[in-house]
């Protein structure tokens, strides 16, 4: 039996009569992959006519755009590729939102808040460098700015790239040079999804990290209970270990009388 269906998809798409006489398929496959500690999720899209791949989009490409994977589709004009790239990037954002929602269902969307503090470094000519540190945070997205009397010092601020800590978390710092004696006019502002609200820090006035406060409170309670229940001193040993991912912690308490 002679088939009216051509092997060339370009001819098929161009001929409405053949489209009515033949059975073919056009399918798109979408994939998004989370990668904690390595940046944004990777989104990929491939298109097939029958069993032949003809287009591909990869968010990890140097210049993410929809690209041809078959000779016959390379003849399409620039408007086609611009429109296909816009469509793919729109779907990328949709899939990222869906991935965050899915992670939330499995309680995997919580972020680790940064442990932030300010250090003081005298330099020449009577100036000092104030360096604002953010440590042990996840995910990598974070905003750090310095303000002088409430005005941002973007032009005069040194900001390093976010760096991995090696345990699944990240670190970053922002520095500004200020006249000696004017340190209290400068504030560091840290915004991260793991924080219930943005942090504001000054040199010498930052709050102790939350984990330190919690450990001190636990030790105080244990010592108080030991003083009531046991004659003599009680030593509370608090051991904290984190998993390799840096996502969760486990706490053991050991009470030992002298």
From TrEMBL:
Membrane spanning segments where? 215-238
Ranges of residues in domain Ig-like: 114-202
- Tell me a Gene Ontology molecular-function term this record carries: peptide antigen binding
Identify its membrane topology class: Single-pass type I membrane protein
GO terms, biological process: antigen processing and presentation of endogenous peptide antigen via MHC class I via ER pathway, TAP-independent; antigen processing and presentation of endogenous peptide antigen via MHC class Ib; immune response; positive regulation of T cell mediated cytotoxicity
Transmembrane among keywords: yes
Sorted alphabetically, which keywords does the UniProt record give? Glycoprotein, Immunity, Membrane, MHC I, Transmembrane, Transmembrane helix
Family annotation (CDD domains): IgC1_MHC_I_alpha3
Which InterPro entries is this protein grouped with?
Ig-like_dom (IPR007110), Ig-like_fold (IPR013783), Ig/MHC_CS (IPR003006), Ig_C1-set (IPR003597), MHC_class-I_related (IPR050208), MHC_I-like_Ag-recog (IPR011161), MHC_I-like_Ag-recog_sf (IPR037055), MHC_I/II-like_Ag-recog (IPR011162)
Any one cellular-component term (Gene Ontology): extracellular space
Q: Which family does it belong to?
A: Belongs to the MHC class I family.
Function, as annotated: Involved in the presentation of foreign antigens to the immune system.
The name this protein goes by in its record: Ig-like domain-containing protein
Instruction: Identify the species of origin.
Output: Peromyscus maniculatus bairdii (Prairie deer mouse)
């Amino acid at each position: 039996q002679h088939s009216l269906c051509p092997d060339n998809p370009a001819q098929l798409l161009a001929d409405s009569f053949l489209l009515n006489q033949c059975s073919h398929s056009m399918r798109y496959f979408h994939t998004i992959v989370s990668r904690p500690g390595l940046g944004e999720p990777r989104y990929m899209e491939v298109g097939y006519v029958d069993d032949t791949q003809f287009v591909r989009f990869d968010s990890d490409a140097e210049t993410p755009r929809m690209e041809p994977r078959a000779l016959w589709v390379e003849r399409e004009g620039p408007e086609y590729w611009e429109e296909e790239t816009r469509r793919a990037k729109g779907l990328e954002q949709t899939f990222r939102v869906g991935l965050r929602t899915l992670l939330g269902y499995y309680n995997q969307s919580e972020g680790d808040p940064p442990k932030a503090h300010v250090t003081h470094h005298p330099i020449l000519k009577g100036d000092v460098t104030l360096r604002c540190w953010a440590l042990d945070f996840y995910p990598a997205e974070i905003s750090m700015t310095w303000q002088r009397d409430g005005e941002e010092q973007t032009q005069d601020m040194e900001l390093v790239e976010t760096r991995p800590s090696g345990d699944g978390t990240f670190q970053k710092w922002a520095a500004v040079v200020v006249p000696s004696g004017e340190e209290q006019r400068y504030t560091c502002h840290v915004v991260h999804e793991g924080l219930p609200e943005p942090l504001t820090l000054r040199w010498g006035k930052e709050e102790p990290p939350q984990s330190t406060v919690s450990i001190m409170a636990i030790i105080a309670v244990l010592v108080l209970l030991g003083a009531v229940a046991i004659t003599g001193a009680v030593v509370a040993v608090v051991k904290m270990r984190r998993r390799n991912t840096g996502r969760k912690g486990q706490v053991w308490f050991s009470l030992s009388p002298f």
